[in-house]
Each structure stands twice: as C-alpha cells, then as structure tokens.
Design a protein that fits this description.
The chain has helices at about 5-60, 65-155. By secondary structure, it is mainly alpha-helical. It has a single domain (about 5-125), classed as Orthogonal Bundle (Helix Hairpins).
Length: about 160
C-alpha cells in the first residue's frame, strides 16, 4: 500500500472536523427547538391562566384569590422572559454553529479540490511516463528490426 500523502491526511482531518461541526450543529438545533417548544408551552399556559382569571373575575372572586392569581401570573411572566432569553441564546448558538460548520465545509472542499488536482497531475505524469516507455520500446523494436534487416542484407 503506498504511503498516505499529506494532502490525504489533511483531507481526512478536515472531513472529521466537518463531521464534528455538523454533529454539534444538530445538537444545537435540537436544543433550540426544545427551548422554543418550552417557550410556546409557557405562553400557552399564560394565555390559559389569563383567560381563566378573566372568567373568574366576571363571576366575582375574592381579593385573596385575585392576589394569588396575580402573583402566579407575575411568576409565570418571569419564567416566560427567562425562557425567551434562553431561546434567543440558543438560536444565537445555532447561528454560530452553522457558521462554524460552513467554515469547516469550505475548508474540506478546498482540500478535496486540491487533492483532485494533485491526482489529475499525477495521472497526467504517469500517462507521460507510460507514453515515454512505450515510445522507447517501439523505438528499440524498430531499431532491432532495422539491425536484423541490415544483418540479413550483408553478404556472409
């Protein structure tokens, strides 16, 4: 087996880094989707409890119950803001992960292009060597035939 060329090693390393960046991006996208789902769930809870408060207020409720609802809704609003911030941070991490993956992909493409160019050059060089060897063999055969023909023409 021929020794591995440095460009092949670099290409393999770039491919591994690209694959790692893609795995990290997938994990970041999953985390972002989860954070967004949690935010949506909290927003739905807020709407439901807000509607429930409106219904109870229309029916009449005592002040202690009203304060409890207000406190709960304020706590829920705080949780919503925290989750909104977490979702935004998660989306920012996805954007960073995507940029990293794209950078790694461009780098891999550059190494693969260079490797292909080197392989084409090597094939062209091998074809020239093969042609040169074929030409030399044909020349020798021609020379040998001429020498044999010359030997047959000479008087013995």
């Amino acid at each position: 087996m021929p020794p591995k060329l440095p460009i092949a090693t670099l290409t393999d390393l770039a491919r591994n880094r690209t694959d790692d960046a893609l795995r990290r991006l997938a994990a970041l996208q999953n985390a972002s989707a989860s954070a967004s789902q949690k935010l949506d769930m909290l927003l739905q809870y807020r709407r439901d409890y807000g509607a429930q408060l409106q219904t109870l207020m229309a029916q009449g409720m005592d002040s202690a119950q009203w304060r409890n609802y207000q406190h709960f809704l304020a706590t829920l609003d705080g949780g919503i803001e925290q989750q909104r911030a977490a979702a935004e941070q998660s989306q920012a991490r996805v954007a960073t992960g995507r940029t990293d993956w794209q950078h790694q992909q461009r780098r891999l493409n550059a190494f693969e292009t260079l490797a292909e160019r080197l392989q084409r050059q090597e094939r062209a060089e091998q074809a020239r060597r093969d042609q040169r060897a074929s030409d030399e063999q044909a020349s020798r055969m021609c020379f040998d035939r001429a020498a044999q023909a010359g030997n047959q023409l000479e008087p013995q």
